[in-house]
Amino acid sequence: MISVCLDKESEFEYFFSPNNYLGEARNITPKKIGFIGLGMIGRSIVTRFLNSGHNVSVWNRTSEKCQECVAAGAQQLSTPAEIVYKCDIIFCCVSGPEAVKSIVYENNGILTGLEECEPGSKGYIELTSMNHVIVQEICKAITDKGGKYLEAPISDSISNVQEGSLLIPATGNRQLLEDCVSCFHAIAKLTCFMNCEVGTASKMNLVFNMLRGFTFVALAESMALIKEAKLWHYDFVNYLSYGQMASPFVTEKYDDFMQNNLTLDTSFKYQKKNLELAVQLNNACQQPCPMMSAALGICQIATQRDVARLETH
Q1: Which of 62, 87, 105, 225 qualifies as a cystine partner to 34, CB 3.0-4.6 A?
Q2: Where are the annotated coiled coils located (predicted)?
Q3: String of b and e for 25-44 (b: at least 16 CB within 10 Å)?
């Protein structure tokens, strides 16, 4: 059963995942799922797909990274083109636009596979966070070859994936989303289908990441000021918990900072990349966003100081 709520003002459709999705009877898509990109996020997604009963085949440029997924029940294939031949719906989750372009355009890539398939028989879902212009370019290349396209960029943390609590914006082919909504239920508590205009979800994702970047910076600076003003951090957190700004995210990060736990659940490299993409969107829209530029500057300083080594592995 697909749980959908239509927002009449925005016309967004919200696909809610059932509670305890992995542990209850559910309608798993009979479609064969292909997955490309087995970094930390990708492996966690494939694990959720397999644990919920999906038929999954995988490919990664570094083939050794497939071993964990194969041991869990996935089939390893040799090229992106073979993923297209043997699977109905292909998910892609890689480091960025250059990696996506190589997977799509290179020999034995996605387009090679689509050339040998019946038009309309294959679907491609992009989970990689990218500039909306590149997303539209990739979409056109795939649809011109007869593939169906959906963008559904992921920007949350590894723990959100492992808990199945992602928030995912999606645009493009709505039927493709419905065909594999059980995959989205396995990893997301909410998937929001915005419209059919590819690129919209990427913009929304970047604005979300911009806000998160601001929040990290504001948390760090407020804690530094609390210390210099000779206030108590715990008093501030308790005070904050009664106000409108209270949130699990803010409380969790404050607790981490107070315990000197600087490990990053979301890869620092990808946080920085998403802020850079948000700056590109800002420039394209000619919208002054000085705080975003400041947050990116702090990320660049942190990179110089090797803070990125603290990210989780």
Answers
A1: 87
A2: none
A3: ebebbebbbbbbbbbbbbbb
Whether the CA torsion 107, 108, 111, 112 is positive or negative: it is: positive
For residues 89 and 112, the answer to whether their CB atoms sit within 8 Å is no
Measured distance CA(298)–CA(294) in Å, rounded: 6
Mean pLDDT of 287-292: 78
| Number of neighbouring beta carbons within 10 Å of residue 301 | 10
- The Cβ-side half-sphere exposure at 271, using a 13 Å CA radius, reads 27
Q: For residue range 93-116, what is the model confidence (pLDDT) as tens digits? A: 998 999 999 999 999 999 999 999
Question: Regarding beta strands 89-92 and 166-172, do their DSSP bridges make them parallel or antiparallel, or are they unpaired?
Answer: unpaired
**Paired strand residues for 168:** 191
- Max CA pair span of the chain: 69
Closest CA to 186 of 30, 14, 51: 51
